[in-house]
Write a structure and sequence with these properties.
InterPro entries: DUF4190, Septum_form. The protein has 396 residues and is an alpha+beta fold. The protein is built from eleven helices and seven strands. α2 packs antiparallel against α3.
């Protein structure tokens, strides 16, 4: 028996009953056939979002690929569409591409933190700028506050630039590159070089430490990991040990009268030597403490010579006080020299105590001279007491 094509109705013989168990069919001119033979069931369509997800993930449009893949995974079960495998592949590829991109960006940021010459960031807000994008003269507040012992890793290498006339944590006074080294020279060596060179830069930048009371120096430097990524920059900055600065610490000769400049300049060698004080005490490293004591003896000697030369050019009402400072400093030089030759910690400390016995007297005399010269004389001013020893924060 030949079956009619599927799209043709199969007429029933007139007057002949239907086979048992089958319902009565409609008249031949109405509705679909009661039976049309075997047919191919059409496959459900493939999700366009699934296809787009995979394609976009392969042409560097991972964000769109990820979004389209997620949409496809949500729509496919609801619409009975195919393409779940394509959507899963699109999501996986897009996610992997985005993850690698984020890791690359993070690596670039960490490198920028330890590289000089990075483009400057916003003055305020916007997430801040890399600390190594700061320039000499910039006032700022770092995202990572210095630790209690003034050391530790720089966990967040950004900072907010601020006008120097507003409260700010520190001011950049210089930077330099660590050159002539192939392999990482070691943390102690990097810190020693950073401390010495930052100290020299500060004394040329500030000139008058006493005007700001206690002033602490800090520096950011690369650790072993930062060094391996190419970091060689050391950033030198200064601030108060506690609290903020409210003005720039930068001063040059044009900011002083001739007598004022001569007086504050005479103390520069002592300020620089104090900034080079070793991190460890004499009980931990007597040799380093002894070398520093020798530097202090030489600095006191230079101050004595400089004050002796400028004393006669000072106003008459402050010459006597300046002369008394010279006498006290002259008496302190031998004690610093004894500290430099000390055989043990006890002898070192005893010599230092004698050398600094008249510091309070000097503070009073210095305040009188500064008042007579029209220089600021804060209550906590002295001959550099409170100046930092160059505290460093390292890269990680």
């Amino acid at each position: 028996m030949t079956l009619p094509p599927p799209d043709q109705a199969q007429p029933q013989p007139q007057g002949q009953p239907q086979p048992p168990g089958q319902p009565q069919g409609p008249p031949p001119s109405y509705g679909p056939p009661a039976w049309s033979g075997p047919q191919m069931v059409p496959a459900p369509p493939v999700s366009g979002f699934a296809i787009a997800s995979l394609v976009l993930s392969l042409v560097c449009l991972a964000p769109l690929g990820l979004v389209f893949g997620i949409i496809a995974l949500v729509r496919i079960p609801r619409r009975g569409e195919r393409g779940k495998g394509l959507a899963v592949a699109g999501v996986a590829v897009s996610g992997t591409v985005l993850l690698l991109a984020l890791l690359a960006m993070a690596g670039a940021l960490r490198f920028t933190v330890w590289s000089a010459g990075s483009p400057g960031g916003p003055v305020r807000g916007g997430g801040g700028t890399s600390v190594f994008a700061l320039e000499t003269g910039d006032c700022f507040t770092p995202a990572t506050e210095v630790t209690r012992d003034n050391q530790g890793p720089l966990r967040n290498g950004t900072a907010e630039r601020l006008p120097c006339g507003e409260p700010h944590r520190g001011e950049v006074y210089g930077s330099f590159e660590l050159t002539g080294q192939g392999a990482f020279p070691g943390t102690e060596e990097v810190m020693k070089t950073s401390r010495d060179r930052c100290a020299a830069l500060l004394t040329d930048y500030v000139l008058d430490f006493t005007a700001y009371g206690h002033l602490q120096t800090y520096f950011y430097y690369p650790d072993r990991g930062g060094w391996a990524r190419g970091g060689r920059t050391v950033l030198c900055w200064a601030g108060r040990p506690q609290g903020n600065l409210e003005e720039s610490i930068r001063k040059d000769e044009s900011d002083f009268e001739p007598a004022q400049f001569a007086y504050v300049s005479a103390f520069q060698p002592l300020m620089e030597a104090q900034l080079r004080a070793p991190q460890q005490g004499p009980d931990e490293d007597l040799a380093a403490a002894s070398r520093w004591a020798g530097q202090m003896a030489a600095a006191y000697t230079e101050v004595v010579g400089a004050l002796g030369e400028v004393r006669d050019g000072l106003p008459e009402d402050v010459r006597a006080q300046a002369g008394e400072i010279v006498v006290i400093f002259e008496a302190a030089v031998p004690e610093w020299e004894r500290a430099a030759r000390a055989a043990d910690t006890g002898a070192f400390l005893a010599a230092i105590e004698r050398a600094e016995a008249d510091n309070d007297v000097i503070a009073g005399l210095d305040a009188d001279v500064r008042t007579g010269l029209g220089l600021p004389a804060p209550e906590d001013a002295g001959t550099g007491e409170g100046e930092g020893d160059g505290a460093g924060t390292r890269a990680s």
